[in-house]
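User:
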Amino acid sequence: MTTTGSAREARTRPVIDLHTHSAVSDGTETPSELVAAAAEAGVDVLAITDHDTVAGWAEAAEAATAHGITLVRGIEISCAWRHSSIHLLGYLTDDDDAELTRELARARDSRSTRLQRMVALMAADGIPLGYDEVLAQVGPGATPGRPHIADALIANGTIRHRDEAFRSWLGDDSPYYVGHYAPDPVRAVELVRAAGGVPVIAHPFTRTRSGALDDALVERMRDAGLVGLEAYHRDHGPEEVARAQALAGRLGLVLTGSSDYHGEGKRNRLAENTTAPEVLEAIEAASSGVTEVLRP
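Assistant: Predicted structure:
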């Protein structure tokens, strides 16, 4: 699923990247900069999927029109299950849906106090970090999250990449991990469907989530309206891809591929994994049509 090669206009099949983040949540580029970077990377279809917010949609839409890129508007919802975090991508939801909007606001509000507690635990163990350093990494109106802790550690010279922070201190299995409010994943699927959107589990079988996300839970999510699994992702090796393929085949789910791009500080590169055009068509067909794929 990895994409390489020529200019966009010379290709017969579009390059589709359905999972990226801007500075509205925990990316390092504004929505406009994200779209420009995608155009430079040869992406034809881009999804903006910030954590628990749709605040970047309008700016991304304007930039996508200017750059001639097709835009899929989405979100990434953090869900909680068995003391682990499961992430759900919701494509083409109605941004005016009251129930989903309330749920996302509740999740965002709980993040700030959670980060304060994590930083206090880390500092008590001698990790050089203050909460004011973390706040300095959160852009205006952005949703604070663990990547902002990583960015503060990069800024003060403790680490070089976000990946280092998550391996050592910020993962779900870390002694410094502190939970925050997040919906049950089945409930999140129901919320996305009720808002006219299309739910796909993000990177379902990464190391810190593989124990929590068993086949029975995925089947319950499918019964609630789940449409797909993000199989092709940097955090999935051949074994995880094969598991996703087998499960999707059994449950009748589509398979997506994405970069999970965040900008600087994370090694993920735009279009390093992509989604097949026929899968995007299936996602469009599964939506209510209230929010459409925005084509130039």
